[in-house]
Specification:
This is 18199_t:CDS:1. It comes from Dentiscutata erythropus. With 69 residues, the chain is an all-alpha fold. It is built from one helix and no strands. The chain has one domain. The chain is 96% helix and 0% strand. The longest helix is centred in the middle third of the chain and has 66 residues. The mean pLDDT is 92.
């Protein structure tokens, strides 16, 4: 009987460890997903800023040429 009780305790402990591991794994997956989403947003924002900067310089060039005439 005592042996059976110890086996049950060990089985419960293993199940708790499996659950903890699964929770941690799910949290890591969620964080990786959020990191990827944030990196994509950052990349898109950087691309947009680059386009704005190029447009600004295109508008600025004729004004600079005028100043040097």
């Amino acid at each position: 009987e005592e042996l059976r009780q110890r086996q049950i305790k060990k089985a419960k402990k293993r199940e708790q460890e499996r659950r903890k591991y699964k929770i941690v794994r799910l949290q890591v997956e969620w964080l990786e997903k959020k990191k990827h989403e944030l990196n994509e947003r950052l990349r898109a924002t950087a691309k947009h800023m680059n386009h704005l900067e190029h447009a600004y310089h295109k508008e600025e060039i004729p004004l600079l040429e005028k100043d040097y005439e």
